[in-house]
Each structure stands twice: as C-alpha cells, then as structure tokens.
Amino acid sequence: MDLNFLPSLNSRQLAIDLGTANTLVYVPGEGIVVDEPSVIAVETVNGIDQIRAVGTDAKLLMGRTGDNIRTLRPLSAGVIKDLEFAEKLIRHFIGKAIGSRPALSRGPELVMGIPSASTEVERRVVHAAALNAGAREAWLIEEPLAAAIGADLPIDRPIGSMIVDIGGGTTEVAIIALKRLTYTVSERVGGDKMDEAITAFMRTRHNMEIGPVTAERIKQEVASAAITDEGRSIVGHAGGRDVTTGALIEKEVSQAELAEALQDVVQQIAAVVADALSNAGTEIASDIIDHGFVLTGGGAMLRDMDVVLREATGLPVRVADNPRHCVAVGAARAFTDEEYRTELHATAGAI
Questions:
Q1: How many CB atoms lie within 10 A of CB 46?
Q2: Partners of 141 in beta bridges
Q3: The whole model's pTM is what?
Q4: Which of 19, 57, 74, 280 could lock onto 85 through a cystine, CB 3.0 to 4.6 A?
Q5: Is 260 exposed, middle or buried (0-12, 13-18, 19+ CB in 10 A)?
Q6: 133-161 per-position pLDDT tens digit
Q7: What are the tens digits of pLDDT across the range 199-246?
C-alpha cells in the first residue's frame, strides 16, 4: 500500500470536481457537501480587487452589478486560466466543506479531477492552486476515469467500457478496460456552448438579448436535444431586452425552438462520440456494441440527449444516476478505496 494515501492526524480527505461551470466537493462518509457555480464576484475599491462573493452568491450577481463589480470564472474548458482567483475559489470551497477545525490541524488531502487532455503544465497549475489554497497534498485523476468509477462501470474487468462526460466547458469520451484509459478524446463543447447557442438564437429569432443565467435556466427547464412536433406545445418564458428599442420584454419560447438552437452543439457532441467509437479496438468495439455507453456530467441531463446519441450510434445509451456527481464520487472512491489506490497513484499521482 502507498503510505501517502493513509489519512494523517487532523487531516481530512476531499474529492473535488473543479469544473468550468460548477464545482462539487465530496467528503467520504458524508457525500456531496458543496455544489456551487465556479464563479467569483470581484469588487474594485481604490484600484484594489476584493472578493465580494463566491459560488452561488457570486452567480446571483451576474449581470446585476455596477461597473466596480465584475463576475468571472477562473476556469475555461476545464483548465485554470486565472491562477489567483482559482486559488481563492478552491480555498472558499475547502472552507465550506471542512468548516472550522483546530488551529493545529493540517490542511486536507485532495484528489481532483482534470481533463484527460490536460498538458503537464496545466496539471502543475491545478496542483499548485490546490496547495496554495491550503491543501496538505493534492492528487490528480483524469475526469473520465473518475466519472466511470462514479457511474459504477465495470472498469476493473477485461471488457471495454465507454463513458461520455458532458461538462460545462468540455465533452470527454473515454474507453476504459482493466482500469486503463485505452483511448480518450476531448472537445471544447458542453453546457456553456449550449447556453451561448440559446443566447444567439434568442437574439436572431426573437430580436431579444438575454443574459447567461436566463439562457441556462430555460435550457434546464425547457430545452431538448431532439426536435419533435410535440415540443412545440412545451413552452417557457424568457425575459430580456429588445435589441432594437432597448425595452424590457418577455417572450414565449418552445422546446422545439430551443432544440433547433442546440442542434449544432448536439451534433458536435455526437461527432466526438463517433470519433471515439472509430478508434476502439476490435474486441473493445464488440464489448461496446453489446453494452453501449454511459452519459455523465451536467450536459447528460439535457432532455433526450441519450435518445439523440442512441439514434446517432445505434448503440444502447443510458444516463448515469446523479450524472453531475459522478466525477466527484468516483474521485473519492479512487482515493479512499483499497481497490483503486494503487491505480490512482499509477495513472495520476502527486506532482
């Protein structure tokens, strides 16, 4: 056993899914204890930036602040683009997860998911951000591997399993056998691109400007990946501003319209899946034909996403239970379960 994985005195273990859109923190024995947007609100006072809000509180300020307060996301496409604010984000969520602790206690041990396509530099940045945020040690695991563990795929068996993880910034597809990623592909398309597509559609079709929070809301409440006649009778409402006059307006938008708006994004995701399938080995391809693949991530919750991918590939497709939680849950299992400890060290490890 690798002694680095043994809990240390007064130290806790946390699994973090540090996502472009949302961050989740899982505590072994407690479950998901943090599930908040990866957003920070920064107020500039006398030329100095100060943190005004983090997470859910910060997202509530998006589009609702003056010139001296701005909201930002420290991550883009699953990787850190602003180290300083990423550290503050991680520190905040660590604090929420562990609460108050004795003054002499050590920082927590973290295991964090990273995109499979992350470069060595990007991995080092994540590791540095975790340590600077107060972690005693940080371990990294590829997100599709963590998602597969969290979705209870039989990755320890000599059969091929396939996972499609649709996050906010990226879609990752991985083929796994005997705890090894035999093939991975990552594309910068996910929930954020869906929101952008809805925003562009509302501007073009309805001459209406809406904010990112509104776009996300109607995506979750109304949108679908499939265009159906029935979808025209399923409607929602969006408030925004008339592009021409600037007047405040509200429009009714149907599920069929939103499905039309999302077609390019959905087809990009389908293309990523097709690419992975075309690169599967013969025997693994046979396994995938028999068993299909599993969807995880927030994008998996878009209505009929599984239906569209099933029709596109001709394979069985299912959405994992609690798909948004899979990476955090799988990372925690890899960190704490005897079965996965050695493999985590071999595939990711501490940098």
A1: 5
A2: 113
A3: 0.90
A4: 74
A5: middle
A6: 999 999 999 999 999 999 999 998 889 99
A7: 999 999 999 999 999 999 999 999 999 998 888 889 999 999 999 999
